[in-house]
Amino acid sequence: MANRQVSAAATHTQQDTASAPHGFSEVLLSPGDCSGCGACMELAPDIVGWREGDERPFLISDMAPDGVLTELMAFCPEGCFEDGNAP
């Protein structure tokens, strides 16, 4: 019986990590307090977009390399970006 529980736990862990490839994190964007500085677009144009006339960014991709997400979180003056894989 204990082996089944371990196997189920191992399978669950594998499923969780399958959602984010190694070295990538899920990007969460909460643009409610966005000041419109555009730093996110400059840092990660493959991840963050901005439509003409919009006052806020949007996600082109919800996955980003860990280093890119770290930069987005560090340089956003309003804290609009979060790591979706963080506990």
List keywords for this structure.
87 residues, Alpha-Beta Plaits, 3 helices, 18% strand, 37% helix, 4Fe-4S ferredoxin-type domain-containing protein, disordered N terminus, globular, two-stranded antiparallel sheet, alpha+beta, 5 strands, 3-stranded antiparallel sheet
Task: Please summarize what this structure is.
The protein has helices at 2-18, 39-43, 66-75, and strands at residues 24-29, 48-49, 58-59, 63-65, 81-83.
Strand fraction equals: 15-25%
Q: So how many helices?
A: 3
Name the strands of the widest sheet in spatial order. 4-1-5
And the CATH topology? Alpha-Beta Plaits
Written as H for each helix and E for each strand, in order along the chain, the element string is HEHEEEHE
**Principal-axes shape call:** globular
| Gap from first CA to last CA | 29 Å
Average the pLDDT over all residues and give the rounded result: 82
State the CATH class: Alpha Beta
